[in-house]
Task: inverse folding
């Protein structure tokens, strides 16, 4: 999906897009916490082990 993101953002190179990927990885725990707080009730937790195979 990186080529799609690159085009969507209007970047000329993947290096420009990679900047955002590194930034996101660094702040991912913070972003996840904020999203869970704001939108956690949209998709309810169904319980169980998320790594469990069907």
Result:
């Amino acid at each position: 999906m990186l080529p799609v993101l690159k085009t969507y953002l209007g970047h000329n190179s993947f290096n420009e897009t990679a900047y955002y990927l590194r930034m996101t990885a660094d702040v991912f725990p913070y972003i996840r916490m904020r999203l869970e707080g704001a939108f956690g009730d949209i998709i309810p937790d169904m319980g169980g082990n998320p790594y469990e195979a069907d």
The chain has a mean pLDDT of 81.
